[in-house]
């Protein structure tokens, strides 16, 4: 009788298709007002689901923001407690997920879901092995040329010896989509599935295939209001790899070409996601599938004179987060503050799956359904030992440090009014009338850093003026 009850419960749960992109910033979807950016499939998911427009990454202690950010998504736990480094005292290399925490896919697997992984897994192989029962075209690197993609077939032992890695020449976005579509078409089990499909697009090299490569002419691309030839001060990581992708100072024409190429990668990705959606519809399971779309972080591409994601401006820390499927209202966009550690709890809530006790994120489900207006009063982000951020949704404080390791960086703060200055062009930190706001946010930052176990919590707010 108990076994029949479990089978009935599983049968009532939706399938899950969890899609995660690399470098896709929060506003870069046509439905969000990017008129020149063509994303009809993502637009349709926004129209038929709910978009969480104010979701931020927790951050990273390394220039490769991908890996620690994905660890936060997988575990629903702050970076400082989700990962270990190459040893227990080194958190600079935050790719290894602690073996004593359960991941989103692992939790779904334990709840009876068949779990299957496709594409990029920039964390340790052990965490993938305990999470997934199957997989295909697994990419364990941070990036690659999109037409030379080193991949593994799924290995149940979790060993993945280097000699079994092989090269694929199909464009990465199509390669991973092919594997996801094959899984959907071939799936025969009666229990629901959790399909995790992780793309390396729109990460550079931004070399979209035709006709997408020619879809955007740089002469038609409008520079954003916060374009700058160079950043006004040392952020602490000014010569990281990403920042070398364009010349100094930034030239308008070169940045327009980067933006055109970035848009082309996103439009190509959008079309491939459309193939996944079509496969669900052809299988007759679209309406009983929860589709989640997000990214590991955003990207500057010329904004604030920067090119990469190694900063805490909105273009780099705010990500898309779309839900579409059973239990999700249609055509809704919510502005509630959220962190990427809240994604796992939200997926679990929508699937009626119990969370592990160690999970620290909060479910956005009651926000989606309108029961409450928010789950957080503030949200913060970190970058290495040189930047910290806190925002209450209107006001945003960024705290910069000089690194004791590299001696790079600047001891200062910035204050932005996001409601009136969403592009973060006017630093109000030197305006005496905002001293009270700075003091309040500085106190919030101290509390947030202490709560999440930040390694810099003893240096949280000094100085509180720029």
From TrEMBL:
CDD domains: sulfatase_like. It comes from the Bacteria. InterPro entries: Alkaline_phosphatase_core_sf (IPR017850), Sulfatase (IPR050738), Sulfatase_CS (IPR024607), Sulfatase_N (IPR000917). The keyword Transmembrane does not apply. Keywords: Calcium, Hydrolase, Metal-binding, Signal. PANTHER family: ARYLSULFATASE FAMILY MEMBER, ARYLSULFATASE G. This is Arylsulfatase A-like enzyme. It comes from Paenibacillus qinlingensis.
């Amino acid at each position: 009788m108990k076994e029949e009850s479990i089978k009935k419960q599983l049968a009532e749960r939706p399938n899950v298709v969890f899609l995660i992109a690399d470098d896709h910033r929060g506003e870069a979807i046509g439905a969000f007002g990017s008129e020149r950016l063509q994303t009809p499939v993502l637009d349709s998911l926004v129209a038929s689901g709910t978009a969480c427009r104010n979701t931020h990454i927790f951050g990273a202690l390394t220039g490769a923001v991908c890996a620690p950010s994905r660890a936060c998504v997988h575990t629903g736990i702050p970076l400082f407690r989700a990962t270990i480094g190459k040893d227990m005292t080194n958190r600079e290399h935050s790719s290894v997920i602690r073996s004593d925490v359960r991941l989103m896919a692992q939790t779904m697997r334990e709840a009876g879901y068949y779990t299957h992984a496709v594409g990029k897994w920039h964390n340790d192989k052990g965490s993938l092995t305990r999470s997934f029962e199957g997989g295909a075209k697994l990419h364990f690197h941070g990036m690659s040329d999109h037409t030379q993609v080193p991949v593994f077939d799924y290995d149940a032992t979790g060993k993945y010896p280097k000699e079994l890695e092989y090269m694929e020449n199909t464009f990465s976005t199509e390669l991973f989509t092919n594997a996801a579509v094959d899984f959907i078409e071939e799936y025969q089990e009666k229990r629901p599935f959790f399909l995790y499909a992780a793309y390396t697009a729109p990460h550079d090299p931004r070399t979209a295939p035709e006709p997408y490569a020619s879809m955007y002419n740089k002469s038609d691309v409008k520079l954003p209001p916060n374009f700058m030839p160079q950043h006004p001060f040392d952020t602490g990581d000014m010569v990281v790899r990403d920042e070398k992708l364009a010349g100094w100072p930034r030239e308008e024409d070169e940045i327009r070409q980067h933006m055109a190429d970035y848009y082309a990668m996103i439009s190509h990705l959008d079309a491939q996601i459309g193939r996944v959606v079509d496969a669900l519809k052809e299988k007759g399971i679209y309406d009983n599938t929860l589709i989640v779309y997000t990214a590991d972080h955003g990207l500057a591409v010329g904004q604030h004179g920067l090119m990469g994601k190694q900063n805490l401006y909105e273009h780099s820390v705010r990500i898309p987060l779309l839900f579409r499927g059973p239990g999700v209202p249609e055509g809704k966009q919510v502005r509630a503050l959220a962190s990427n550690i809240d994604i796992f709890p939200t997926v679990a809530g929508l699937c009626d799956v119990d969370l592990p006790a160690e999970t620290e994120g909060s479910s956005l489900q009651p926000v989606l359904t309108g029961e409450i207006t928010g789950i957080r009063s503030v949200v913060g982000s970190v970058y290495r030992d040189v930047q910290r951020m806190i925002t209450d949704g209107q006001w945003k404080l960024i705290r910069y440090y000089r690194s004791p390791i590299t001696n790079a960086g600047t001891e200062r703060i910035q204050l932005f009014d996001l409601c009136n200055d969403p592009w973060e062009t006017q630093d109000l930190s030197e305006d005496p009338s905002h001293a009270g706001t700075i003091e309040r946010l500085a106190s919030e930052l101290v509390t947030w850093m202490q709560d999440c176990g930040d390694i810099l919590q003893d240096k949280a707010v000094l100085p509180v003026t720029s």
